[in-house]
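Hi Q.,

Before the meeting this afternoon, I wanted you to have the biotin prediction in hand. No need to reply - just skim if you have a minute. The sequence and ligand are here:
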Amino acid sequence: MHTDPLNPDLITPGLKTARIGSQIVVFASTASTNDIAWHYAAKKANDGLTVFAEEQSAGRGRTGNKWLSSTGQSILCSIVLMDEKLEPEMLTLTSAVAVASAIGTCGKNHAKIKWPNDILLNSKKVAGILVESKISRGKKNYVLGIGINCHQSPENFDEHIRPVATSIDSETGANIDRISLCKRLLISLDEWLITAAAEKQTVIDKWLELNTQLHSRVTLRHNNRTFTGVVLGIDPQKGLIVQVEGGGVRIFDADHTSNVR
Ligand code: BTN
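Predicted structure with the ligand bound:
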């Protein structure tokens, strides 16, 4: 039994962010925090609003996957970004750096990034990010959905993802305080979005430092084709740059590509 229920009155105090967490709402249960966030995205004044939930009945991940989590075990949140200037790929990179930085070092190892949006601890997935966008009258609105596994033990994960999934508690042997992590997450996102607006290269350098795939061999699935090659770098507008075996250099975009495990 964990005693860190999410509560706006505990997350808000001392949260000196410019934008992120401008308003905080917490649901005991909802279908998907991303859906609630899109509802709030109807009003410009809701920029930065953050929705948390203890439980989701229809949590979604990238490429049509479900995101499953038992009640009170995770941080499940969605952030409204109204009239955001960053392009989707750059926002994905920035969010990944922010989430990995908020999780920080657990045990001996720092949280790392697996392109496009997986956050790993000791090579297992501890968090995922789902960037959804709507463009209207030339303005880009986003909902940034983030799921961080906190208190799960291995048996809490479905059998097929158990070998590749983990939680912060599993990696540290301790009991993470979700309220502190929520604060760190909102502050980290706020700071990294400011950095990205001012100096994209700082974010890209940090992303490359935290990425697990640079100079490594990867296998990717893109538009129903499989590609294997060595990661050369990242293009902040187009995606992952790969020297494809027998096929020159290609850039893979996050929307149409997934890693083959
Ligand atoms: C992925 O790794 O595929 C992305 C997972 C994103 C999950 C989070 S949980 C909170 C928010 N609400 C959702 O329905 N999805 C995101």
